[in-house]
Design brief:
The protein is an alpha+beta fold. The protein has three domains: 3-168, no CATH class; 175-239, no CATH class; 242-476, no CATH class. The protein has helices spanning 17-31, 58-67, 79-87, 100-113, 143-156, 175-182, 211-220, 262-275, 288-292, 320-333, and strands at 3-5, 35-40, 43-48, 55-57, 90-92, 95-97, 122-125, 129-133, 138-141, 160-162, 165-168, 190-193, 196-199, 204-207, 224-232, 248-256, 278-280, 285-287, 303-308, 311-316, 337-340, 367-369, 376-383, 386-393, 401-412, 416-425, 429-433, 438-449, 452-464, 469-476. A four-stranded antiparallel β-sheet has the order 7-8-15-14. α1 (17-31) runs antiparallel to α2 (58-67). It is elongated.
Amino acid sequence: MKVSILASTNPGYKLTKDEALNKLNLQLSRNIANEITLTHNDYSTTLNLANLKSSFDFETALNEAYNIGRTENNIFNNNKKIITTFFKKNNITPTVSYDNDILSSEIERINNELPDKVVNSSYKVEDNKLIISNSASGNRISNDALGDNIKNCILNNTNSIDIPVEQFEAATVDVEAIYNEIHKDAVDAYYSSNPYEIHKEENGLDFAISLDEAKKLVTENQESFTIPLKVLKPKVTVKNLGQEAFPDLLATYSTTYSTGNTNRATNIALAVRSVNGYVLMPGETFSYNSTVGERTAARGYKEAGVYLNGEVTTGLGGGICQVSSTLYNAILLANLEIVERSNHTFKPSYVPAGQDATVSWGSPDFKFKNNRNYPVRISASTSNGTIVFNVYGLKSDDDYQVKILSYEVGSIPFSTQYQETSALPAGTQKVTQAGSNGCKTQTYKVLYKNGNEVSKTLINSDTYKPHNQVVSVGTGSVSTEPQESSGSSVEISY
């Protein structure tokens, strides 16, 4: 739209500059609130002008209009122009502006929606495969032309635009450039001593075929094609950095087991082997179940004594709870943060009550977090019926000496169950399962600094069920042979 303004020296003058400004603002503000339709062939979309943050420079336009013929130097030199100013309207077009970033975003949206749009080549890495989508030529919006058309819509108060497009030839796939972007050499783990820091290993990535073979795939395929990839493994990982990278022993704990129970001993050895050498970076959380994995026959685990739903039975992996409990105590003494821990149904035989950590595939789990400023390394071993866990890292001035104290704060007496059996003569009894009391415990972690107690914190309150005594009562025929009146219990470790 053209803005028509009468100069103030004109006898036909009607508006002051402020009045003209208010009038223009009222009129043109309606224009920038409109919604316009943009079309290209069968494609159509809308654009809200208000969202472009459009505006007008009325001030400059009005100053231009009101200053025509008013300069002293021009009063006598430009008589013709002055006369025209006096008796004719002067058509002034205000400058229109908008947010270029917003318009660019809208243009990009429309470009992506055009049915005959340009398709740039793209790629993604998925399951050790490089999937490349080829490019395709097409139309793109002429940004400058569209901007001019939008300004004209605003000034002339129109609501439709034919989208100005131009043919654009898409670039062909540059396989070599893609290769340079994704190729990465493997990086070995290493440590520095000043300052002390563990640097984790990093896997590399490479084409599984030659670059020439990959380039050939571009010419043979129209839309998309796949290039196989290979992962490059580092030669040195954090796990095998060696003991020198973890100079200080932070904590140690050991338990013993019977080597005569070969199945149980096998399970213990497998679980210990899974944990040995594990490195936990600062802030990382260790999961026993995730680290040891599912206990299956295919992985070498054997049937041994376990607790199942509060009952004594046998199952694959019996004995691994002694491994998790031994590790639990080492972690407590290293003053690492316990995230998840559960006690057994019955009192364990290999650690004090209140200091065990039961595990089962799926749930429950034993988890802890490295809350130190430096990495820690877990060393685990079995030898001659002894499990040993050592936690290594870097000691600091902020470290405490740790003691774990467990107290039985209540006893839960066992009860006696009587079972009739014809295997025993009538009138006789035999204890077939010895009973043992359950208990309630409280476990504390005590921190010391320079031999002085700093804090004493309750960390567990646990309840252990009693093992009920079972007495067999004879119902059989009377025998003259002497009968045992009692039996002995057999200790089972889980």
